[in-house]
């Protein structure tokens, strides 16, 4: 099984929204073969809690316009690692330090990457 077209569309929209708010180092992985709860992880880096919340707001707004609503949010208060669960995709907005420490790319390296352009 691979990620649905809808999941790919949402992932690309989330990436574009994150870039608009200056997020960096964007990547996406098709985790549909390993997880039944979502199709794609989108990961991006930010340098401050304020930037993390701005990315969160922009991603949620952009995906809301596409008819997708976050079913769960975690980490907004601290702003160091915000997780946005849209069911089809999960967006990880990570401070650069958390991203380096947790290295999600390493954990999911066996999963195919999803082109975001």
Mean model confidence by pLDDT:
96
The count of domains is 1
Identify the CATH homologous superfamily: Beta Polymerase, domain 2
Described by strand count, sense and barrel closure, the largest sheet is: 5 strands, mixed
End-to-end separation in angstroms reads 22 Å
CATH topology: Beta Polymerase, domain 2
Range of helix content: 25-40%
Radius of gyration of CA atoms, rounded to a whole number: 13 Å
What oligomeric arrangement do these chains adopt?
single chain
Task: Extract low-pLDDT stretches.
Answer: none
Number of strands: 5
Strand content: 15-25%
Number of helices: 4
- The CATH class, by name, is Alpha Beta
Element pattern in H and E: HEEHEEEHH
CATH architecture: 2-Layer Sandwich
Q: How are the strands of the biggest sheet laid out side by side?
A: 1-2-5-4-3
Shape: globular
Q: Which structural class should the secondary elements be placed in?
A: alpha+beta
Could you outline the blueprint of secondary structure elements for this entry?
Blueprint lengths: L4 H16 L3 E7 L9 E7 L2 H17 L6 E3 L6 E5 L3 E7 H7 L1 H4 L10
Parallel strand pairs: 2-5
Antiparallel strand pairs: 1-2, 3-4, 4-5
Helix pairs in contact: 1-2
Could you list some keywords that capture this structure?
single chain; 117 residues; alpha+beta; Beta Polymerase, domain 2; five-stranded mixed beta sheet; 25% strand
Task: Summarize the model shown.
The chain has 117 residues and is an alpha+beta fold. It is built from four helices and five strands; from the N terminus they run H-E-E-H-E-E-E-H-H.
């Amino acid at each position: 099984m691979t990620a649905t077209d809808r999941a790919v569309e949402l992932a690309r929209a989330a990436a574009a929204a994150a870039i608009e708010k200056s997020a960096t180092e964007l990547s996406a992985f098709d985790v549909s073969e390993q997880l039944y709860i979502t199709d794609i992880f989108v990961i991006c880096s930010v340098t401050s809690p304020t930037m993390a919340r701005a990315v969160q707001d922009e991603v949620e707004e952009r995906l809301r316009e596409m008819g997708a609503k976050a079913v769960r949010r975690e980490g907004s208060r601290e702003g160091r690692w915000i997780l946005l669960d849209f069911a089809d995709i999960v967006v990880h907005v990570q401070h650069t330090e958390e991203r380096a420490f947790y290295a999600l790319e390493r954990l999911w390296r066996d999963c195919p990457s999803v082109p975001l352009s």
